[in-house]
């Protein structure tokens, strides 16, 4: 069924289709290109707990170990990676047909989390790298994905996009490209993450063609079963723990594989983890990011793990092959 959102490609020279080609890993880290990829979950609780000026609700804190992990990630992004652009794929900008790229030059507005409006009412105002956004849309269309650019500035930016971007760069002083999640994988149980491989390849090509230094953000939680009753104080950490040991063990299984590397075995493990834990990676953000990086033969650096209303969340950084922190 997932094929309904993929158009057939005309044959290219030699008879092979462009889409059939597997993403090629980059041999040496380029001065431009994808300089890091981050698993950067977006639960509104983290921003609520930080009390930034953009968010209306006030808190007394909470979920500190995850927030400290994000602090370390921010330092790396700002001081080491120094990207021209942050590219985010987020599961709550859901598009029914195809993949959309936000090409509004200056999205502004208020983003509200519909389930937790008492935690997240966030005023955003950021710049889009429109040239790169258009290049990603063109490359994705060229690879056979149904793709559209979003041009309507009235569309409200979802909290998964805002959440990952704020937590990675609360100063909002880096241009952004944001990609929607085609909700096909949520609808069709036999859908694969194959389209995310293609979207990743399109992203990599566009970054390289435009000469950008890009950091990718995959805005996904891990295990995704959660509580349905909230304590009187939402940030009451006495109440915070894994949903159950099964969920926790599966998150650890995935994270141990991530830490060990290489990433190629994750192609099998991510769908197994989704099946076992209802993981939010079903929306494809993690697969998109690793595919864009050419499934590097290295481990990821797990900066932190913690639960939020029982769901598993990890902040993880991958560097391209041949690259390392000095
Ligand atoms: Fe989410």
Can I get a quick summary?
By secondary structure, the protein is of the alpha/beta class. It has nine helices and ten strands. A hairpin with an 8-residue loop joins strand 4 and strand 5.
Task: Please specify the SSE layout and strand pairing.
Elements: E1 33-39, H1 44-50, H2 64-81, E2 85-95, E3 99-102, E4 108-112, E5 121-125, H3 130-142, E6 147-150, H4 159-168, E7 176-182, H5 184-187, H6 194-210, E8 213-218, H7 245-260, H8 266-277, H9 285-292, E9 301-308, E10 311-318
Parallel strand pairs: 1-8, 2-7, 2-8, 3-6
Antiparallel strand pairs: 1-10, 4-5, 9-10
The protein binds fe (ii) ion (FE2).
What characteristics describe this protein?
single chain, 326 residues, alpha/beta, six-stranded mixed sheet, two-stranded parallel sheet, 10 strands, disordered N terminus, binds fe (ii) ion
Structure write-up:
With 326 residues, this protein is an alpha/beta fold. The chain has helices at residues 44-50, 64-81, 130-142, 159-168, 184-187, 194-210, 245-260, 266-277, 285-292; strands spanning 33-39, 85-95, 99-102, 108-112, 121-125, 147-150, 176-182, 213-218, 301-308, 311-318. It contains 9 helices and 10 strands. Strand 9 (301-308) and strand 10 (311-318) form a beta hairpin. Residues 42, 91-92, 160, 221, 280 line the site of fe (ii) ion.
